Amino acid sequence: MPSSPEVCPTVCPHDELNLRRFRPHGPCRLILPALAGPFFRRLLVSSFFLLLLGLASVSVVRAQSPTATLTGTVTDENDAVVPGVNIAVISIAQGFQRSAVTNGDGAFVVPLLPPGNYTVKAEREGFTTAEARDVILNVNDRVALKMQLKVGTLTGQTVDVLDTQALIDESPAVGTTVDRQFVANLPLNGRSFQSLIALTPGVVIVPSSLNGSSGQFSVNGQRPNANYFTVDGVSANTSNGGGSVPGQATSGTLPALTTFGGTNSMVSVDAMQEFQVQTSTYSAEYGRSPGGQISIITRSGSNEFHGSLFEYLRNDKLDANDWFANRAGQARPPERQNSFGGTFGGPVLLPRFGEGGSQPWYDGRNKTFFFFSYEGLRLRNPKFALTNVPSLGLRQTAAPGMRPILQAFPLPNGRVLANGFAEFSAGYSDASALNATSIRLDHTLNSHFMVFGRYNFAPSSSARRDGQSNLGTTNVTELRQQVLTAGSTMIFTPAASNELRFNYSINRGKFFQRQDGFGGTVPLPRELLLPAEFVPPGSHWNAGGTFSLSGLSSPFLPQVMVNDAAATQRQINIVNTLSFTNGSHQWKFGVDYRRLAPILSPRAYI
After folding, report:
1. In angstroms, rounded to a whole number, what is the distance separating the alpha carbons of residues 257 and 190?
2. If pLDDT is split at 50, 70 and 90, which confidence band does 486 have?
3. What is the largest CA-CA distance in the chain?
4. Dihedral sign, CA of 212, 216, 220, 225?
5. What whole-number distance in Å separates Cα of residue 73 and Cα of residue 83?
6. How much helix, strand and coil, in percent to the nearest 5, is found in the chain?
7. In this structure, is the dihedral angle defined by the CA atoms of residues 11, 16, 19 and 21, taken in order, positive or negative?
8. SS3 of residue 586 by DSSP
C-alpha cells in the first residue's frame, strides 16, 4: 500500500529526554506513520520493547481507550462460516469508513471506533451484499455482531438489509453506560450528571469530609478518592482545593469540579456524548485506581448543522419568604438563578470570497467537523442566619485597643444576652458563578488517520458568608480550569492500529476572606497588627483571629481585600495504545504517562 504523506515528526532526536523534562526544543515536524516503511518498522520494534517492559513492570505500562471494538462472524444460509468477506463499518454522522476482512473462521475485528451509530456492510463475490444498520457502539464497548449472507448470482445489484440483532457483549466488565439521549430526558439538579452516577449498582453516595477534600461516592466499598475520571481518554483528576495544606485535593485523586461541586467544569451536559461507570472486573488497562472508572466522551460535529439554546430562570419574585426570616421581621433575601447557554456544531465550511462560483473554498463534509458549547450560571442563593455578636454595651465599655475588633462584627438587632452578647439576625444571599466554554475539532485525513483537538475553559467562583463565626466575613473560592486535549487514531493495516492522546491541564485556585459593611460591620484596618510599611495592599484582618498578607488580586471579584491561599494544579498526560489482531486474538498494550506538578502559595499568618 502507498505511504501516507509526510507532514511533521512528533519523534525528534531527543524525544525521550523531552518526555521526561517537557522542555521545548525548537520546531518539530509530524510524520504520519507509513503503512510500509522504516517508520512503521521502528514502531513495531519499539512496541515489542514496550511489551517486554510491560512484562517486567506491569505498574508502569498500561493504557486506556475511550473507543469501542466491534467483532463479528459472517455465515451463509447453512450457518457455515464465510472467509474473505469485505467488511465496511460506516459512520452515519461523519461518513468515515473502517474496513476489515473475515479470516478463515469467518471472524473480523474492527478496533478503535468512536462511539456512535454505524452501518456495517458485508460483501463477497457470489453472495448478496448484506447491511446491518443502526449498530450503536458506546464507550469501552467490546461487542459482537453476527451477519448472514445469501447466495446471489451477481454482487452489487441487490442489498439484503438485515434485521439489526442485539449486539453480544464480550467484555467481562461490570458497568453502566448513560448516553446523551438519556441525559437530555431527565431533570438534573445544577445541570451536573453526578446524580446519574448513583444509578450504577455498587455506587454509594458518601458525605464529604470537613475540609471538603474527599470524593463524592464510593464504589464497591473503595475509598471515595479511589475513583478515576477520564475525558476523551485522558485523566480529569486535576482537582484543586485552593488550600494551603497539601491533601487529596492536590494529589490527583479527585476530579476537577466547580467551586460548588458540579461536573460542569469537566464537561457541560450538552457537550457530553455519553459516559460509562465501570465498577469491577474491568480490563487491566484501567489499573491506576481501584475504584470506579468513569469514562466521559465529548460530542463531535456531524455532516449536518445542529444547534441548541437553553435558559433556566428562577427569581425571588416568584417565591415566598423564608419562615424564619418572616418571624424575625427580615425582608426576603434576593434569589436569582440564571442558567443559560447553547451549542452549535457541524462540518467546517470556509466560504469563497470574490469571483469563483458559489462553492466554498473548503468543504469539510465527511472530513472536518467542529462542535462549540457554552454554559453559564449566575446564582444567588438566599439564606437566613441568627447569630450572637458583641452587644452595644460591650463595644462602648471595652478597652480602646479591643474596640476595632468588636466593631468588625455586625451590629445587634435582637435581644441582649448575658456575658456581653446580643442577637443578630439577617437574610442574605450567597453568590456563585460559572462560565464553561469548549470547542472541539475533528479531522479525517484519510480512512487510516484521524485527529481531534479540544479546548475547555471553565472558571467558577463562590462567595459564602461565614455564618458560624462572623457574618461580616465572606469566604471566597475561585477556580480557573483550562484543558487542552489532542489525539489521533492511526490504522496501519486491518490488523494493526494505534491510538494516541495528549493532554495539558492547568487548574488555578484561590481561597480568601474579605469583610464588607454587612450589618454595620467596620472592616479591621490592616495596620492594626503590623506597621504600615510591612503590610502590602490587599491585606486584611479576619475577625475570627487571622491576619492575612497578600498583594494578589482576583480576576472574578474586584476590590478583594484578602487572599489567604492560592494553588495551581498542572498535569501532562500522554496515553498511547497499540492494538494487534491475530486470528481470533487481539493484543492490546500501551503506555499511560501522567505528570502532576502542583504549586501551593499560602499567604496566612496566624
Report:
1. 13
2. very high
3. 108
4. negative
5. 9
6. 15, 45, 40
7. negative
8. strand
Question: How many of the other CB atoms lie within 10 Å of CB of 305?
Answer: 11
> Would you state the pLDDT for residue 208?
65
Closest alpha carbon to 190 in 375, 447, 29: 375
CA-nearest of 483, 548, 544, 541 to 511 is 548
What is the spatial distance between Cα 452 and Cα 442, in angstroms, rounded to a whole number? 4
The CA distances from residue 183 to 86, 189, 308, 403, 514, in Å, are: 37, 12, 15, 56, 39
- The cell numbers describing 381, all together, are 442563593
Could you give the angle at the alpha carbon of 97 between the alpha carbons of 95 and 99, nearest 5°? 170
- Residues sharing a CB contact under 8 Å with residue 207, sequence separation 6 or more, in sequence order: none
Q: Which residues contact 341 (CB under 8 A, 6 or more apart)?
A: 268, 270, 309, 310, 373, 374, 375, 376, 436
Tell me if residue 369 falls in helix, strand or coil: strand
Q: Quote the CA–CA distance of 576 and 403 in Å, as a whole number.
A: 64
Q: Read off the C-alpha cell for 540.
A: 486584611
Residue 28, pLDDT > 50, answer no
The Cα–Cα gap between 560 and 80 comes to: 76
The strand order across the sheet containing 86-91 reads 97-101, 86-91, 116-123, 129-137, 159-162
Residue the block writes with cell 525521550? 16
> Rounded to an integer, what distance in angstroms lies between the CA atom of residue 435 and that of residue 71?
42
Q: Residue 141: which residues within 8 A CB-CB, separation 6 or more?
A: 68, 69, 70, 115, 167, 169, 171
The pTM (predicted TM-score) of the whole model is 0.79
C-beta atoms surrounding 595 within 10 Å: 13
Q: Which three cell numbers stand for residue 335?
A: 434569589
**326 Cβ contact partners less than 8 Å away, ≥ 6 residues apart:** none
Q: Specify the pLDDT at position 561.
A: 37
Q: Where are the beta strands (DSSP E) in 469-525?
A: 470-493, 496-515
For the stretch 130-175, pLDDT in tens is 999 999 999 888 899 999 998 876 545 677 787 766 788 878 888 8
What cell was used for 303? 455532516
Q: Cα–Cα distance between 11 and 26 in angstroms, integer?
A: 13
Answer yes or no: are the C-beta atoms of 238 and 569 closer than 8 Å: yes
The rounded distance, in Å, linking the Cα atoms of 188 and 121 is 39
Q: Report the Cα 475 to chain-centroid distance in Å.
A: 26
- Burial (CB count within 10 angstroms: exposed 0-12, middle 13-18, buried 19+), residue 20: exposed
Asked if 141 and 68 count as a contact pair (C-beta separation under 8 A), the reply is yes
| Cα distances (Å, whole numbers) of residue 135 to 108, 116, 311, 586 | 16, 8, 34, 21
Residue that is written with C-alpha cell 519523534 in the block: 11
Summarised one tens digit per residue, pLDDT across range 61-78 is: 334 568 898 999 999 988
* Contact residues for 400 (Cβ-Cβ < 8 A; gap 6+): none
pLDDT value of position 453: 97
Best CA proximity match to 408, nearest among 426, 427, 395, 420: 395
| Bridge partners of residue 497, in order along the sequence | 491, 579
